[in-house]
Design a protein that fits this description.
Layout: H1 3-16, H2 20-28, H3 35-47, H4 51-62, H5 70-83, H6 86-98, H7 105-117, H8 121-135
């Protein structure tokens, strides 16, 4: 078992037990981080309602050696939905398109949720209609 896998598992375990500060310390001390490690912290912050920390984590992920994936996008879009932050959500939507995750059913569901929670129903319907036209994959 690799060091990266063990440390990421430790971060996940600490976060799930509510020890998010300790999880972040372990994350910060990791000699290397892959997308899974970043997503572990990002989703932990999002699930715990620590939205500003989730936003910060996503921003740092974007400029790291790792790259956001579908899980990253669903986590940050969940944060945007909780905050009803359509401005940030729209920026993330642009990243989704540029990163070619706009064909992901899960990411599109998160986009629809974000737009709906933000009161931008037309934008949510636009995403839904693209999916109905077959532009979304049936699953990842």
């Amino acid at each position: 078992m690799s060091v990266l896998f063990r440390l990421t598992s430790k971060v996940a375990s600490l976060a799930k037990s509510g020890r998010i500060a300790t999880a972040r310390q372990v994350f910060d001390e990791m000699p290397e981080r892959d997308t899974v490690a970043w997503n572990t912290m990002l989703t932990s912050y999002s699930r715990l309602g620590l939205h500003q920390e989730a936003i910060s984590m996503f921003a740092h992920l974007r400029f790291s050696d790792a790259k956001p994936d579908g899980y990253s996008f669903t986590a940050i879009l969940s944060t945007c939905a909780s905050l009803r932050d359509v401005r940030l959500g729209t920026q993330v939507h642009s990243l989704v398109i540029r990163s070619s995750y706009d064909a992901s059913l899960e990411v599109n569901n998160s986009l629809i949720d974000m737009y709906g929670n933000s009161g931008e129903f037309e934008s949510g319907v636009d995403v839904l209609m693209k999916c109905r036209k077959g532009l979304c994959m049936r699953g990842i």
